[in-house]
Amino acid sequence: MELKKAVKTRRSVRSFSPRLVDKGIIEGIISDALWAPSWGNTQPWEITVVTGGLLATFKEENKQAAMSGKPPDPDIPMPLEWPEINKNRYRDIGRRTLEALSIPREDAEARLNFYTHMMKLFDAPALILITVDRAVSLEYSMLDAGLFAQTLCLLSHERGLGTCIMAAAVQYPDILRRLVKITDTKRIVIGVALGWPDQESPVNTFERARGGLDEFVRWVE
Ligand SMILES: Cc1cc2nc3c(=O)[nH]c(=O)nc-3n(C[C@H](O)[C@H](O)[C@H](O)COP(=O)(O)O)c2cc1C
User: Fold this and answer.
1) How far is the CA of 57 from the centre of ligand 1 (A)?
2) What CATH number does domain 3-79+120-206 carry, 3.40.50.920, 3.90.180.10, 3.40.50.300, 3.40.109.10?
3) What CA–CA distances, in Å, run from 68 to 55, 65, 181?
């Protein structure tokens, strides 16, 4: 796939087919994504691929934790406040997502079901966790992890796979630490849900929005 096309047609996938992804395919994608750039070529990312029964247990526990009202305690704190412009974009994607699912804003039960589905990683058959050692620079390793994540998403997309980068996968790191055996010396940065996208689902195909050059770019000479 042409690079520009890959960049412009990748979407966060929120409905997956139950079909499993071969270990060899996942290995190939990760192996290629390891070519992502990093500060001083430090390559601080550590990758854990979670599948099968362990992933099923995680999804259930992640959902239960959210349903019980347990406060999230991610290793990378969630932002509490955003400036208005960012909040508006966040609201907009929420509105578009609900619209694609034909969920009216006032339908609290349907919204809760969607949230539950999210905590179960939209039934993705694989979760790729990115962790970094606490000994490395927090700020730069976050940049590096982000570069790795996007590279991974594009390479997956090239092969017809769908991904969703998910903060919701790492809100309760204690569950992951226990199940997946990640020590406290590691920061659990983010999870990427991976699987074959359900091509028909409107939640995968609805139109996303991006600002234009004038919103982001300033030229100085
Ligand atoms: C750091 C990060 C965390 C995210 N966490 C979630 C999440 O928990 N749940 C979710 O449905 N989408 C999540 N997303 C996906 C974003 O909502 C998505 O990238 C954004 O709305 C733009 O849509 P697109 O990826 O389809 O272009 C996350 C994306 C990033 C980069």
Assistant:
1) 23
2) 3.40.109.10
3) 20, 5, 23
Q: Say whether 170 sits in a helix, a strand or coil.
A: coil
- Residue 99 DSSP one-character state: H
Q: How far is the CA of 166 from the centre of ligand 1 (A)?
A: 6
Domain limits of the chain?
3-79+120-206
92: left (phi over 0), alpha (psi -120 to 50) or beta: alpha
Strand 162-166 and strand 45-51: the pairing is unpaired
Question: What is the band of 1 on the pLDDT scale with cuts at 50, 70, 90?
Answer: confident
What is the predicted pLDDT for the residue at 65?
98
At residue 117, the pLDDT reads: 97
What gap in Å lies between CA 82 and CA 85, rounded to an integer? Answer: 8
Residue 79: predicted pLDDT: 86
Q: What is the pTM of this model?
A: 0.97
Q: What's the 32 CA to ligand 1 centre distance in angstroms?
A: 22
Measured from CB, residues less than 6 Å from any atom of ligand 1 are 11-12, 14, 93, 118, 164-168, 190, 208
- DSSP H or E stretch at residue 111: helix 108-119
User: Would you say 167 and 78 are in contact if contact means Cβ atoms under 8 Å apart?
Assistant: yes
pLDDT tens per residue across span 89-119: 999 999 999 999 999 999 999 999 999 999 9
